[in-house]
Design goal:
2 domains; Jelly Rolls; binds calcium ion; 255 residues
Length: 255
């Protein structure tokens, strides 16, 4: 047997048998107690396809929470300015994440701002639990979104007080996605895409008659199961490697 072919066979056996199925539970916690933002978070000012970026944000840590007190206008005319903190997940199958959030609109109804708790796969927004105040003349509302069901839950325009605090939960068990607010399930769907990013987005609509007082994060707790690639998939990868070696070997002989 020629050396290249022999190496290919060895590679096939090795890759086929050593499936790096690092299955297990990964915890994702952040008490937001400061004094700095946990470096596990990536901060970006993109628009993610909606509204515009922002030019920066102002926040501080106090009383065991991250307080966002300003989101700078990104320069766009009449559009939302956005800030996102996010962290990558290894391909997550079952998971449970709970985010304790708060908001304050000290000036009254004029605040126009949003706080989203979101989960993404590589190309899609999979699920979102949100606080949103989109109008100058009213207070905010809750809503949820998921890739399968869309906006399944909306608490109604002006349904929330000027200040409040609640827990947003995004969980999945055996493909059954469950979205909860304050411990009560408000939406669910069958959603099996692996989740790869957890994001928290802050938005503000800057204009002459809007204000932004405060959005806060008190605590994030959660965990997820890493999705292992089936061992058959790894055996397949090994087989592809072997075929590649054989093809190269044949080409060399034909030349
Ligand atoms: Ca805290
Ligand atoms: Ca408002």
């Amino acid at each position: 047997m020629k050396l290249a072919l022999l190496l290919g066979v060895i590679a096939f056996l090795l890759i086929g048998s050593v499936a790096p199925a690092v299955a297990g539970t990964v915890t994702v916690n952040d008490p937001f107690d400061g004094p700095n933002l946990d470096p596990a978070w990536t901060v970006d000012f993109d628009s993610w396809g909606w509204g515009g970026p922002s030019a920066g944000w102002t926040y501080h840590f106090a009383d065991g929470a991250l307080h966002v007190t300003d989101i700078a206008d990104g320069g766009g005319v009449d559009q939302w300015s956005s800030v996102r903190i996010s962290r990558t997940l290894q391909e997550a199958g079952d998971f449970s994440f709970a985010l304790d959030v708060g908001w304050l609109s000290a000036e009254g109804d004029s605040d126009v701002k949003s706080l989203y708790f979101s989960l993404y796969d590589t190309g899609n927004l999979l699920a979102r639990v949100a606080y949103g105040d989109a109008w100058v003349g009213t207070t905010g509302q809750y809503f949820t979104y998921d890739l399968v069901g869309g906006i399944q839950y909306d608490s109604g325009l002006g349904s929330l007080p000027h200040s409040g605090r609640d827990t947003f939960e995004i969980a999945r068990t055996s493909g059954n996605l469950s979205l909860k607010i304050g411990g009560a399930e408000v939406a669910s769907s069958l959603l099996e895409n692996p989740a790869v990013r957890l994001g928290i987005e802050f938005k503000y609509y800057p204009s002459a008659n809007t204000t932004f007082d405060e959005l806060a994060l008190y605590d994030l707790e959660g965990s997820y199961e890493v999705v292992p690639l089936p061992s058959a998939a790894w055996a397949g990868l090994g087989l592809l490697g072997l075929l590649g070696v054989v093809r190269r070997y044949r080409r060399r002989r034909a030349a």
